[in-house]
Amino acid sequence: MVRSDALARLHAMQAGDLPVHGGRTLAYVYDSGLAEVDRIGREAVAAYAGSNGLDPTAFPSLLRMENELVGFAADLLNAPDEAVGTVTSGGTESILLAVQAARDSRPEVVSPSMVLPETAHAAFHKAAHYFGVRTVVVPVGDDFRPDPWAMGRAIDGTTVLVVASAPSYAHGVVDPVSEIAAQAKAKKVRCHVDACIGGWVLPYAERLGRDVGEWDFRVPGVTSISVDTHKYAYTPKGTSVLLHRSPALRRAQYFASARWPGYTMLNATTQSTKSGGPLAGAWAVVTTLGDEGYLALTEQVLGAVDRLVAGVAQVDGVRVVVPPDATLVALACDETLDPFTLTDEMTARGWYVQPQMSFRGRPATVHLSVSAATADVVDDFLEALDQAAKASVAAGPVVVDPGVVTFIESLDPARLTDDDFEGLLATSGLMGDPDAGLALPERMAEVNALLDVAAPSMREALLVAFLDRLARPVRY
């Protein structure tokens, strides 16, 4: 029997999600504010939802769209004529493939490593975990950028990849790519630029007269770049582009296997079967907006960032951590207010901003990913931020019970058991009804403060346990 209420149920469930339009969700989603462009992208996704990108000979239209999308990205990033690229499912997959290709291009290296700034995206650590590549982490300075000569000194005979960000996610600044790439090139090591956030913004920012430095394929020594289309190309979720300077550099990315009686497997990404929907949606949006459309959207979003940064300076207790190079802004709080309370107060006023935990002696911050759609509501955001800051001061700082801190410190993250996790939930007052699952409060400041006092390894273990509790079957 076919149920007829699935879509109604779907829309009812979706009502509890963060809004993906309107410019008020300042993480996870990127909104152009253009309803017609959004419609075109969604219709293209639907039209190709059943198509399979596994075999380009079976679906040649997908191959054509991928090559055109890669070509647009290659032109945007000043790639040489021989450059090649692949459409992936997102920035993390692009980064995974860049690391995997670098590792597999050097089979003679027994214990491969990569050199990256401490501000590099966590996806590089995920790649290291998956592919057995050691991370050599270089600290950043007060400007949140690494010393390129320190990066160079960290390169040794085991290094298969050097990493730079354009910009880094947490603070929104572009690393000194030219100098880092020069260090890598001098030692004959690949250099990957993570431009997942900035790759579709910085080229247009440069055309608008902004000084963004050198970071793309014009820089000698840059061998690959990742850029996400589902971020500032404003396409439907599920696409990124990984570009290599030459086919030879990409070859190790491929996987082929004829060691079974079925079809010979041949993959350019970590996926085999993959829906053609996200690729079609990306192609349709990029084709619709084109170069001039993106130039206009970039002018719009950078104008919003400028106004936001200027307005934050007028809010007591809150400041911009570092002048942003693109569209990402990090906010810090002074001793009069708590950043986790501030995020709760913003949520209460209809804005989602992302808390970032303290790290290596640096205090917790608040992250903003500004979209073009946010340009129309910057004044509303600043008014809400001012109100939220005042409310945070009135509420006072979040204090984690010393007993909870002691309990966390007594736990071993490598051996965290279900009983340990339940004990922490009970100690912190989050257990609720055991039959009803986790009883998270509507306000998250206490939870975030608890995580903030935990060491990074314990933070990871606690969140894995938390996710494991959330991801349980619903049985009818």
Automatic annotation (TrEMBL):
Its cofactor is pyridoxal 5'-phosphate. GO terms for molecular function: aromatic-L-amino-acid decarboxylase activity; pyridoxal phosphate binding; transaminase activity. Signal peptide: none annotated. The modification N6-(pyridoxal phosphate)lysine is found at residue 231. The keyword Lyase applies. InterPro entries: GrpII_AminoAcid_Decarb, PyrdxlP-dep_de-COase, PyrdxlP-dep_Trfase, PyrdxlP-dep_Trfase_major, PyrdxlP-dep_Trfase_small. Transmembrane segments: none annotated. GO terms for biological process: carboxylic acid metabolic process. Keywords: Aminotransferase, Lyase, Pyridoxal phosphate, Transferase. Belongs to the group II decarboxylase family. Sphingosine-1-phosphate lyase subfamily. This is Aspartate aminotransferase family protein. It comes from Nocardioides jishulii.
